[in-house]
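> @MW can you paste both from yesterday?
MW: sure, first one:
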Amino acid sequence: LWRRFEFISRIYWLECHGNFQRAKSSIGALLHDRVKTEKDLVNVEDMTLRLWVAEVESVCFGPDTPRSLMSIRGLQDEAQRLAQRLAQFATQQASIVAPQADSDLQRLAVLNRINPPPAATPDAAALLGAAPTPPAIGQAQRQFCPSCGGKLEPGAKFCSHCGARLTQAGEN
């Protein structure tokens, strides 16, 4: 009786089935944003999550003897609690490709504060529903881009804001 060892073990079995996809997402304009971010995403769709929890009692009579199985009990309440916690955790994970979590919206708000959309670019004007302002006539046309209205560097061949090719007076 003194060399009897009783063990109670808990076994967790987690089974996941679904479609696995991998993607790369980048946020931030290439030419004029100060902050850019990039993320590798793993997407599992139509996932089925199954979780089993069992408690196993075993006994052995000495340190070098094999264990004998005494009983196995399923712990349904523990399995349901843990499955709900895992499902809740999965729905709160951020994925900027399909923003649906609160953390996605918070991250986008921070990025928009750091990189405000330039009001003079055609893309920003289209997003805001307004037409871009036409460039001024004469001397100002050489100082501002005819496509987006952004300020030009002296002698520039391309606009640093929108990337449009600039034509000098007399060129076609």
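MW: second:
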Amino acid sequence: MTGDLDFVLMAGSSSQELGQAIAAYLDHPLSPGEVLRFSDGNTFVRVLSNVRGRDVFLVQAMAFAPNDEFVELLFWIDALKRASASSVTVVLPYFSYAKGDKKDEPRVSIRARVCADALEVAGADRVVTMDLHAPQVQGFFRVPVDDLRAEPVLAERLRQELPDNLVIVAPDAGFAKRARGLATRLGAPLAIADKRRVAHDENAEIIEVIGDVEGRVAVLVDDFSISAGTLCEAAAKLADRGATRVVAAISHGLLTGDATARIEKSPIERLYMTDTIEGHPTPLPAGTEVVSIAPLFGEAIRRISKRESISVLFS
């Protein structure tokens, strides 16, 4: 895309494929690094190129082994700072511990805040992420945080493949505002699934669907899905309420355990998800389409490196 970019682009062990895709979009090399994991569980990282006085963009998601991946990320930041990098921008496609955003019961940790503090202490100068579970997590950082949205990328794919008689369905009231943004882009009405969660497991009960879905293609949207329990239960409710088809569009698809089997048995005909997460331990459900957000991250990196505004990426 451009040959005048003066920065170093690297990727940790959990985001090698996305790092390569971003590098391809930018037409910019992905600098090498080395990660070793010893038999006692220790992690060792080494930067294999000269970064002295350079701005570095480091891509590393936290997904299936968030503790190991986060510690590796801290070590990368420290190694880059000790190698005299001018700045380190952490590109965090999926921030797993963003779900720990509040103290909603006694004697619990606000995990996202702990991670934010650790990233800053290690030396991160900026964070670029996508679809944080709660926007207030940005306020846990004292360095700039750019929370990109998968919405425009998913909206374009839905517009290309689905008919006009859509209804966008939020999985709970808390996600209604973001779902309304997608509904506005697609010129579709909004419905909300009333969800209740009674324990610290990955299961929720869908009590009711608020809104008219009869005779429409229902598009379930969410920021992430782990067990797919909420998606599948909501899909069953939508089918019961007369939706002609049910599809799902999510930013971060972890889909652990029995999630694939659960989706394939559900009314969900097609699942759209981005490539923020890679290395799934089990096959993805049949009918899954992975939509790349590498151009979005690549454009954010290009604009940040050239000291340009990235606000257009949120439009």
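> thanks! The two ends are 22 Å apart (CA to CA).
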